[in-house]
From TrEMBL, chain A:
<keyword id="KW-0472">Membrane</keyword>
<dbReference type="GO" id="GO:0005886">
    <property type="term" value="C:plasma membrane"/>
</dbReference>
<feature type="transmembrane region" description="Helical">
    <location>
        <begin position="304"/>
        <end position="331"/>
    </location>
</feature>
<feature type="domain" description="ABC3 transporter permease C-terminal">
    <location>
        <begin position="256"/>
        <end position="380"/>
    </location>
</feature>
<protein>
    <submittedName>
        <fullName>FtsX-like permease family protein</fullName>
    </submittedName>
</protein>
<dbReference type="Pfam" id="PF12704">
    <property type="entry name" value="MacB_PCD"/>
</dbReference>
<feature type="domain" description="ABC3 transporter permease C-terminal">
    <location>
        <begin position="710"/>
        <end position="826"/>
    </location>
</feature>
<dbReference type="Pfam" id="PF02687">
    <property type="entry name" value="FtsX"/>
</dbReference>
<feature type="transmembrane region" description="Helical">
    <location>
        <begin position="428"/>
        <end position="450"/>
    </location>
</feature>
Automatic annotation (TrEMBL), chain B:
<dbReference type="InterPro" id="IPR027417">
    <property type="entry name" value="P-loop_NTPase"/>
</dbReference>
<dbReference type="InterPro" id="IPR003593">
    <property type="entry name" value="AAA+_ATPase"/>
</dbReference>
<keyword id="KW-0813">Transport</keyword>
<protein>
    <submittedName>
        <fullName>ATP-binding cassette domain-containing protein</fullName>
    </submittedName>
</protein>
<dbReference type="InterPro" id="IPR003439">
    <property type="entry name" value="ABC_transporter-like_ATP-bd"/>
</dbReference>
<dbReference type="GO" id="GO:0016887">
    <property type="term" value="F:ATP hydrolysis activity"/>
</dbReference>
<comment type="similarity">
    <text>Belongs to the ABC transporter superfamily. Macrolide exporter (TC 3.A.1.122) family.</text>
</comment>
<dbReference type="InterPro" id="IPR017911">
    <property type="entry name" value="MacB-like_ATP-bd"/>
</dbReference>
<dbReference type="GO" id="GO:0005524">
    <property type="term" value="F:ATP binding"/>
</dbReference>
Amino acid sequence: MRLPVLYRMGWSDLRRHPVQSVLAIVGVAIAVAVVVAVDLANHSAREAMRLSLESVAGRATHQVVGGPDGIDEQIYTELRTTLGLQQAAPVLEGGVTRPEPERRALTLLGLDAFAEGPFQRPIGSGDTLGDAFNALLLRDDAVALGEFEAARLGVAAGDSLTLLASGKPQTVEVVAVVEDPDDQARGLVVADIAAAQHLLQRHGVLSRIDLILTPDQVGQVEALLAENNARLVLAGASANAVVEMSRAFHTNLTALSLLAVVVGAFLVFNTLAFIAVRRRATIGVLRAMGVKRQQILQQVLMDALLIGALGTALGLGLGYLLAHGLVGLVLQTVGDLYFAQTAGQLVLSPFSLAAGLVVGLLGSVVAALMPALEAAGTPPRAALSRAHLETRARWLAKKSAIIAVGALLLAALIIGLGSGLVSAFFGLFVLIMGAALLTPLVVLMVGALLRPFTRGRPYAGLIVEGAVASLSRTGVAVAALTVAVAAVIGVAVMISSFRGSVVNWLEGSLAADFYLSAPERVLTDSLANSLGDLSSVDYVSRSRWVDLATDQGPIELWALELPAGQPPAVDIRQGNPDAALQAFANTRAVLVSEAFASRQNLAPGDSIQLPVGAEQQNFTVAGVHRDYASPGGVVLMRRALYQTLYNDDALSGIGVHLQPQADRAAVLATLEQMVGNTPGARVVDNAAIFDQSLAIFDRTFAITEVLRWLAGLVAFVGVLGALMALHLDRTREFAVLRAIGLSRGGLGWVIGGQSGLLGLVAGLCAIPLGVALAWLLVFVINQRAFGWTMGFDLQAMPLLEGVALAVFAALIAAIQPAFRAARLTPALLLVAAVGAAQAQNMAEVMGPDIDTDRFARVTGPQPLVFPDDHGAHPDYRTEWWYFVGNLADEQGREFGFQLTLFRSALDPEPPARRSDWATRQAWMGHFAITDITGGSHRAVERYQRGALGLAGAEVRPVRVWMDNWQAQSQTDQTLFPLQLSAQDEPTEIGLDLHLTALKPHVLQGNAGYSQKGEDPGNASRYYSFTRLSAEGQIDFANQTYTVTGSAWLDREWSTSALDSNQAGWDWFSLQLEDGRDVMVYRLRRTDGSTAPQSAGIVVEPDGQSTVLGADDFTLTPTRHWQSPNTDSRYPVEWSLVIPEQGLDLAVEARLDQQEMPTTIRYWEGAVGVQGTTHGVGYMELTGY
Amino acid sequence: MSEIIFESLTRWYGEHPRRLVLDGVSGKITDGQFVVVIGRSGSGKSTLLNLLGGLDTPSQGLVKVDGVDLATMNDGALTALRRRRMGFVFQSYNLIPTLSVADNLRLPLQLNGIAEGNKVSEWLARVDLQGREHDWPDQLSGGEQQRVAIARALIHEPAYIFADEPTGNLDLANAERIVQLLDSLCRSAGRTLIMVTHAPEVVGLADQLLTIREGRLVEAEGH
């Protein structure tokens, strides 16, 4: 049966107005897309940050420090293994001198490349070092330099360098010269921590441990340190500035996300309201014919839902695509600042989808219903009357202006009286609504204002009246455009304010041209005096930074000395600047930073207590200055006062201010020469730091900038759609104008003029709203979020850009309708139908290509001796302990897990080196959990050095571990029972399983000799425990599940396994219900054929086993799955036939997405078995 | 019993100042009459028609249709009354532009739950538009559109037809044709036809003539 005519009207209407319909759907789609994209990108950025550790910058948040002798290196091991901290890096610093040919003081920086990832130091991490990585790790005399420092020292990679370290000359080899465009490694010599301990003769100690901590972890670390002679302090100021900036980045993204929702909702409203207005006359006819109000509303609702649903569906898809692009950008920003190995995927957040759905569907329905309700509630005669509609629109414009004033007052109240971020965001929303409600009245007022100028100018009259007369349609369009453009303006002003403030602050805090620092307290006043005496030096500033311990936590004190009459370059935000600086210079008064003042609730004139020796003394706060660096705030005190009170003459740094005409390069050279005898002293060029800081800032805000333009694009498309639809709707009116004698050009002018006028009105309305939004972002939202203010940098450019955007969009929107109207002849018009990398194997992963001949090789069968062979075989290049299993909790929720610890020898010779950090073993761990029932897979990869107890394998009892991942036997003689545990906080996965062997081990291949290639030396030693009972706990996404199930252990070691013509393998471990266990693997050659070394084993319920050769089984892929992340196509379903065993099995992935997001991608996951019998298992697919 | 009684009908628009459009008009229209309302532009004819048809509400006075005061009816009842008992023909046709000719005719049938049968083609034949079912309103001439509008107003066989200057947009030949069509279709079925018009030639056909001047009824003439 056909749908009643009434309910077909909507669809018919859409078909008869195809252009308008498409515009409406596109309008909704774009609005939804932006909401979804911005939110998804935002959410993914957060997720990326969360994964790489919450709200943390590219540097440490905290440091573990000790006395002058440093700290015990074992603290580091405890942090990694006991607390399982992943973002911890050891640092050993010491002054060294290069005596010849020109004496130069350098800082030797000992780092651990395995731990550097998150810290983003100039040349610390493994990936920047390339092939030199092994040399640095294995040798005591290997160092790396930044390119500019190498040039200054006149050395290249491969050259030797003599350094005076720990009082004696030592020769080192520069094994790497690393790109360092910003010369951040000026004065630095970087070595592995083991080498640094050797060169500085400081075995067993570290200068400090850099940490990136979440607030929860701080307490744990402090508790651990309480037992040691070490303490936890906040990391350096510059790092914290970045942390704070990053938090700002977060908050501002959120604000932008909300703005996108509001803008999106307005665009949807505009689009749908327009259609409803167009149908008003039809509604009048229907009402006259006796159609019930409710039927009309139903019909309108169905239409709105249709457009809303189409637009929303399109928008969700579009948003997802858009988000992909944005996420790339966000992650680039994040990657600049953060280390985020596991991030990089678009995280689908239910909130994003919900926001898109709400904006798209609910927005459509509300937008369509409001005018429809109005029309259906109007007497039919009036609904048929256009005049009535416009009269009512004017009346409504005036009414809504009154509501608008109320809304603006309410916004002011909410913002003024509230104190939290939520009230600020709510205030922002009410402000936007208020401003939007005001715009129709502005259109009327502009019309009234311009009317006198249009007398005697028919074109001008047509332009003004046309724009004003259709208020029912133009009002909402102008409001939507205003909101969108205001968002563009607001964010632009906010960014420029932010940048301006950062520049100001950097200029103040980096006021000196050069800054001298030294790792130990070696800077003296006499050095400062002699620096000040240099002819090109104007003056020097002397700084001392100390942490004062108080009951409320440490207070950062900065004691600053400047020549008489030279005020500190700080920006006083509260208090009279002159008076504050006077008081600072002459009395006991101090200056405090905004964050400190906000935290302690201080204002100028208040007094604060600081510990001086054993007593507390009061100091007057003379002023509050701007400082973005220390989140806890800083107290600035005159150094003379500090010296008197604390009896401390030490200097932390000396700032060198040059004469205006000084030759910077010459002074720098002189300064470096002067500090040549001060070991470890470094001269920092503040100009470089300034540039670098701004570069970080700009990168951080790149995403915001992109989102701003995206909002602009939405505004553009939105207004384009709205105005185009408006013009198309007025085709008849335009035809009349042509008919009464308006030329084609004239009509073009009228249409363009009307459109441009509306754009201009919207643009002008957007200026005050945009500025208000920026003000709110700058002074309220950022202030409430961080405790510091920014300047308000209102420049003409963003405002003009906003207006230009609005006018441009409006003019573009007029082109097609003008062209169309002018092209057709009036008569026709009047009757016109308006409607018409992957193939790498594990061995390659495990280390650079080094000479395998020097390692031991597996060449034939050899008896295995336990428990020793459960431990490490360091003479072989590669080895792994591989645990997998299928588990379920009592409710039947199923999980799969994989925990593999890989050992890789970088060198066959054990190190003859003294440092505990020295090693030739690198460890890699892969940990994954599949929530089969929940359809989710999470995985993580780790690296660690096999030294200092950080990673290793022992026997009696067997213990294999990397940080806090470990397998530990419960007895000295046997491997099982065994406790397997691993936790990873960023991915929120963990396990703690008790494993018991249900069958003895089986030797794979020929008595454990498993030949993998044609060369007998291309083989591994291989044994398995094929059936383990497992019970314990699984952690997944913040939930803990008590589970039982079965597990499997594979042990394998080799030096060289695959032939060069082998591409990868398909490996299966299956545990069948009939008690049999099956392992088979197919080695694939590069030409796709199966290598004859493919093999397997069947283990009977009693532990007896039968080895399978390549001809004993057939493996055929039956279904493939393509990874959206890598495009790799994995065979995820197989047919496995073992005729001799009477097995004909279908092996199917329990979840397709079990690809490991590790350095080398492969597929490893839980499988189910069907066929002649049932079972579970694990499958590993490599080389795809 | 089909009958419309109106007493002291007054309608003004706006409040400051009030614009009086209809001023205390009374009368009675009985079953099967052809009532012609004439008067100059702006005299209040269309307003009277809208009030009688329940398309607008009076500022003062009452309208009784079939003995029921429209003011006592809620929106639902009034809507039902219009749907079942009335048909409207407007000067500007007011066909639903996005529905085909046939669908425009189907609409009142479906609204009233009347089986369609051959009614659509029959009515198109009566207004001499056979074979135009699938045309869109804007593909028809003015006269043709008005004939569709008449068919739409009559297809569900209402008791009253309200026609507001149905010939206002048409040439003489077409106008005559429309009036005759309306007259014959109404008389043949005993329907009451109330027509507002400027056309003096229609007056001769009227059973009752209502002449409105400046909002007042100047003479009520019955044949």
